[in-house]
Write a structure and sequence with these properties.
192 residues, mainly alpha, Cyclin A, domain 1, two-stranded antiparallel ribbon, 66% helix
């Protein structure tokens, strides 16, 4: 495949991710809207303490997670992205959020507090938010269940669990939902 062909494939999957980057800004607005709708407690906490979600999520979307997580895991995200499309970025973003921000959205749109509740509620600035994300990404190769008596459970990594949560619990984030949200916010982004 030539460079030009690769560019056009990426342009189809992520339209406008080049100067002036309207597509990037649009997807950040869509992601924030979905977080506001599905993870309202987290969204409201971030508004209260003036933490910008896009500080972490913009690099995720721009680099397809390549510059945020260990390469071996990032390439698996890229594989999923090329197989399943842009919804993967949103689903993995929500999966990361469910572990680190620490809510898990269920299909019925109810949320349960998870393992990092105390860490999240202590976040008061963008720097701590970025540090929490960095620490989480650095731990993706670690066991998700290190204290389990079942050796099969101990063998499951945080990355495997991230993919499972991302694709199972956030399967409600579909290509159609993303397209409709992009249409909803397109005028606002392009004319701002």
């Amino acid at each position: 495949m030539s460079e030009e062909q690769a560019f056009w494939i990426c342009d189809c999957l992520l339209p406008g991710y080049y100067a002036p980057m309207h597509g990037t800004l649009l997807d950040q607005r869509v992601f924030a809207s979905l977080v506001q709708r599905c993870l309202a407690i987290i969204y409201n906490h971030f508004i209260t303490v003036d933490v910008q979600l896009s500080v972490a999520s913009l690099p995720w979307f721009l680099s397809l997670f390549i510059n945020r997580m260990p390469t071996i895991f990032a390439f698996r995200i890229v594989d999923c992205f090329f197989c399943k499309g842009p919804k993967v970025l949103f689903q993995v973003g929500f999966g990361v959020s469910s572990y680190n921000l620490p809510l898990c959205v269920l299909i019925h749109e109810s949320a349960i507090l998870e393992i990092n509740e105390e860490k999240l509620l202590q976040i008061q600035d963008d720097g701590r938010f970025l540090n929490l994300m960095q620490d989480y990404f650095a731990s993706l190769g670690d066991s998700a269940h290190p204290n389990s008596s079942d050796p099969r459970a101990r063998a499951i990594t945080r990355f495997q669990e991230l993919l499972s949560v991302s694709f199972r619990e956030f399967s409600v984030i579909t290509d159609d939902l993303i397209l409709s949200e992009r249409k909803r916010f397109r005028h606002e982004i392009i004319h701002s």
